[in-house]
Design brief:
Two copies of one chain form a homodimer.
Chain A lengths: L10 E5 L7 H13 L5 E4 L2 H10 L6 E3 L5 E3 L3 H24 L4 E5 L6 E3 L5 E5 L2 E5 L9 E2 L1 H9 L3 E5 L2 E3 L4 E2 L3 H11 L4 E6 L17 E3 H10 L2 H15 L4 E6 L5 H6 L4 E4 L1
Parallel strand pairs in A: 1-2, 1-13, 2-10, 5-10, 6-11, 13-15, 14-16
Antiparallel strand pairs in A: 3-4, 6-9, 7-8, 11-12, 15-16
Helix pairs in contact in A: 2-3, 5-7, 6-7
Chain lengths: 276, 276
């Protein structure tokens, strides 16, 4: 073990599920890291595939918008089941790619071994046509606690955890959680040096979707203003970045997941780098 | 820890996926065991749900029969993906039930952490209308090696592993494996005392489906003749039982998974008990 591999450069990589994300390129980079004695931790969600699968299974996706402007998936029991299947499909596809590269990946949902635990939202207040509507049968929540002991034990033994939603509520119910924010919480509680958030854009764009408007560096203190620039799903990524940095992560990088060497490039500072 | 909980009575429970299997009853029994200091290991497949999901997704299930009379799922890449999703859906449904009962379950595919490793079949020779047909793009295999170190580490720390296919081939490919035989291999290599195989019949029936023809006790040496009595999927369960007993498991119990206390009843000898 060199000083570099002692854990001080521990990295959490969040892999987006949008079109064009190159899982083979990501897997190549993870193998490159483990060859050098670094054991990263991966996190992914499954939004895009959930949408397709939900259509195919006759339970089309629905979304709700909170009064604060965040959009979430409407997650009734059937939607939760479909979401779980989609996440698992991506998870196994990643684990297989990593195993084929001699990386001993271990895919886990947040609910497994109480890796991700948090509160389920009792009610969701959404705004529909200007009126507030209350939804009670939704399985959505957020991650507060992370089973760092289990994850550290696995990584010490050389396993690369590949984490996915759902998490588990304090009452033992599966809950849909935002994977970006779950990755941020995990990075903070595992004292990660860097959180890399890969998606299908080059980073934070000042004028979405104009990729030439990429913001290359930004200070954590200036990030809050970006929440207003960020659109749609990027809003939650920005919120996740804020939470990671507030939790002690040194650096968050929003980077392009569509290119060769997406993780290495991100670690070298390509994309939007946010320092604490 | 009492002598009883020292591991000498370690149990592997294989949960069938057929109609009527009561996952809530099974989960109640697992909680009863962990309350008494026993940490069992669970294994399940996903055949029945795979069939339904495959129909819904427009890739209907196909089966092939080998010249020795064993029936297997035809597993091309798409069938493998669907199989993975179905298994994961059952897995998460079990993990959630167990977590709700304060059992710290951890769901894992055999491919995760190289828990189940074995050869992929190069070619499958099937008999169709009396002719031998060779299939090459199939992802089927069997479990030879079990990562007992990982499973023992998890169980020592109080986690209840809930294992499902696919396994991983020596070349790092996901492979569909028979969950009964994978459970048998796992029980043997973990030196389990008892392997309980729950399905939607009361045990081995001399005259299937006449449940009054239940065979209550049988010696391992007489099991081979049962292979001829057993029908369809029961054939592989009998083969699994043979393999478990040959591998050092003291007792295999074929038991009814539809009734209250299915695991406790099996451990008390209800069903078909096969002694080494």
């Amino acid at each position: 073990m060199t000083a570099e591999s002692s854990g001080s450069l521990f990295t959490v990589v969040k892999i987006g599920g949008g079109a064009g994300i190159a899982l083979d390129h990501v897997s190549d980079d993870i193998a490159w890291m483990t060859d050098r004695g670094h054991v990263p931790l991966l996190v992914h969600g499954g939004s895009a595939l959930t949408n397709r699968l939900a259509e195919q299974l006759g339970h089309p996706p629905e979304f709700v918008t909170s009064s604060s402007g965040f959009t979430s998936r409407r997650t009734d029991r059937r939607a939760l089941e479909i979401f779980q299947m989609a996440c698992a499909s991506i998870n196994k596809s990643l684990v297989e790619r990593l195993q084929a590269r001699d990386v001993n990946a271990i895919g886990l949902a947040g609910m497994d071994g109480q890796i991700w635990v948090g509160p389920r939202k009792d009610v969701i207040r959404t705004v529909q046509n200007g009126r507030t509507v209350v939804i009670r049968d939704d399985y959505t929540g957020r991650v507060e606690q992370v089973n760092t002991l289990l994850l550290e034990t696995l990584m010490r033994d050389g396993y690369v955890p590949v984490l996915m939603p759902p998490a588990i509520s304090y009452d033992g119910e599966a809950i849909n959680v935002d994977a970006d924010r779950a990755a941020a919480r995990t990075a903070a509680l595992l004292h990660a040096d860097t959180l890399v958030i890969l998606s299908n854009v080059p980073g934070l764009l000042r004028h979405f979707p104009d990729e030439s408007s990429l913001i290359r560096k930004i200070r954590a203190t200036d990030l809050r203003t970006m929440g207003e620039v960020a659109r749609d799903r990027m809003k939650k990524k920005v919120l996740g970045a804020e939470e990671a940095l507030a939790g002690g992560v040194s650096r968050v990088v929003f980077a392009d997941g569509r290119v060769p060497h997406p993780v290495r490039r991100a670690l070298e500072g390509e994309g939007t780098v946010i320092h604490a």
